[in-house]
Amino acid sequence: TLWDLLKLRLGKDPQKGIPLFKGLSKTQIYYILMAGALQTYESGKIIMKKGEVSHSMYAIISGKLEVVDMTDEGSFKKGAGTKRVFSILQAGDVVGEMGMIRSCKRSATVIAAEPAELLMINEKMIKRLQWLYPPAAQRFFFNLMTVLCDRLENLTTCFLEETATDKIAVTGLRRLDFSMEMLEKEISHSQRFSSPLTMIVVCVDNLMEIVEKSGYKTGNAVILQTMNLLISHMREKDFLCRVDRERFCLVLPRTTEEEGTELLKRVRTLFSTPPLSMVPQPVDVRMSFRLLAYDKELKKSAVAFLRDAHVGKAIKCL
Questions:
Q1: CA 203 – CA 274 distance, rounded (Å)
Q2: Run of H or E including 65
Q3: Cα–Cα distance for residue pair 202/13, rounded to 1 Å
Q4: Is the pLDDT assigned to residue 115 strictly greater than 60?
Q5: How far is CA 206 from CA 48, 167, 203, 223, 296, in A?
């Protein structure tokens, strides 16, 4: 039967292998399968094209699909075009749900990365299911909404990862505004639970001088090496941010000033050994280090706390 075929392809019962079928009984899934259509595609076959309007979606029964953006479909078929792969979908995943719900243009092209079997589900089939088997249709729509929410969450996460990253010198660290939010949370935690909070400020004092003499490549290498050394000795609860071109702040949640002092000594030792390995040519790098303990009585904001790292106010220099 089709049920046995799906179970064989997925390696498990359909309601466990396909999110759309979660919570449905064998009979209810049978109704959906009978209304849908099982289609096969060879490797390299285009399943849906970017820009076309469609009223159907697909559940992957076997094989893999690639969601791509192609520069030129004609050239690509001849082996001359290029494609950018956004994601790879496997058995159990669904694709094209927005096209079925909204009848909008496809936002990307989907091709079969290997021979694939797909269960096509369209609007006509859904309406028939609603009319004949309302409980099955209700659960199906709930599962579809869950799939869309998961997609939105993943997209939001990717967007935040992209926009929250420091692009200066390509350090890959969180941007300052994102780090400020994290610091505000730690300050709130410190005030609410009376827990200590300290911060180590590391500054490459002569960065601009290095750039002027040796170029941006060397300056960037100094910044990257500084970041890597700090990251390699961070604890799991700590986080690092870059507050300006030459200054890093290593935030130490739930850390007393005495504990921060000991950690600062180890950090200074890291930079006492000459020769930053990533620097393309020998340079004289001058570093300064400060320890700043958050005073809960003053109730400073994250902005004020970081401002102290710049002006030296209330900073204990070591």
A1: 16
A2: strand 65-70
A3: 56
A4: yes
A5: 55, 21, 9, 11, 33
Give me 65's structure tokens. 């699909």
Read off the pLDDT of residues 37-96 as tens digits, 9 standing for 90 and up.
Answer: 778 899 989 998 888 887 788 888 888 899 888 765 554 455 555 677 878 888 878 888
Which three-class secondary structure state does DSSP give residue 256? coil
In angstroms, the CA 138 to CA 145 distance is 11
> Partners of 84 in the beta sheet?
69
DSSP classification of residue 204 = E
Beta bridge pairs of residue 37: 120
List alpha helices for the chain, DSSP H: 2-10, 14-17, 26-35, 73-77, 97-102, 123-132, 134-163, 176-193, 207-214, 216-232, 257-270, 302-311
Q: Which band of pLDDT confidence, cut at 50, 70 and 90, is reported for residue 163? A: very low
The two three-digit tokens of residue 107, written as one number: 């936002």
Task: Indicate the Cα dihedral angle 55, 57, 63, 66, nearest 10°.
Answer: 80
pLDDT at 111: 92
pLDDT at 293 over 70: yes
